[in-house]
Amino acid sequence: MKKKFDFTAEMKEVQVTKSTPQNEYLEEEKRLLGINVKELAELNDNVYGLRTDLTALVDLLGKYKLSIAQDTQEQAVKFGNTVLGQFIDQIEIKCTEAEQRITQMDNRISLSHKAFYMLIVILIALSSFLVCIIVANVEFLHSGLIWKTIACCGFIAILGIIMVMLVIRIL
């Protein structure tokens, strides 16, 4: 014979959950979570639909060929030609102005006195450097002669700069 289990004593001990504010809050949260799950499912369906539509649109745009109307092309060419024409006219005006200035100077280049004298000093310094190189190649490199020529070259350059400053103050 089978024994039946009697759970009546345990059933009497079980307490019925009372309606407390915390329980009501949890029930409300459960209800709101259910609503959120439904809305998220709808959003997921919407996103999937948008993704498929976007993929189809990208495929369509890849097959689409851009063409410009003949009238628009002609307008663009005309506009480009007018801009280039204006640019060429400005260049020609600047060239004629430069030619007029050159002819007014009687084919001479005008330099200030300061620049002219500085060019002479540079020419003297470079020629003295050339002499130093020639002398250094003739004599041994470790001789005292090369140091004397370098000192002379420096002296000539300094003397030339001083002369230029004096001439500029006098003039």
Explain this structure.
The chain is built from 5 helices and no strands. With 171 residues, the protein is an all-alpha fold. Helix 4 runs antiparallel to helix 5. It is 80% helix and 0% strand.
Distance between the amino and carboxyl termini? 143 Å
Helix content: over 70%
Number of helices: 5
Q: Tally of extended strands? A: 0
- Nearest-angstrom radius of gyration? 50 Å
Could you say which structural class the secondary elements and strand pairing correspond to? mainly alpha
H/E element order: HHHHH
Concise description?
The chain has helices at 8-13, 21-63, 70-104, 113-138, 144-170.
List the main descriptive attributes of the protein structure presented here.
single chain; 171 residues; mainly alpha; 5 helices; 80% helix; elongated
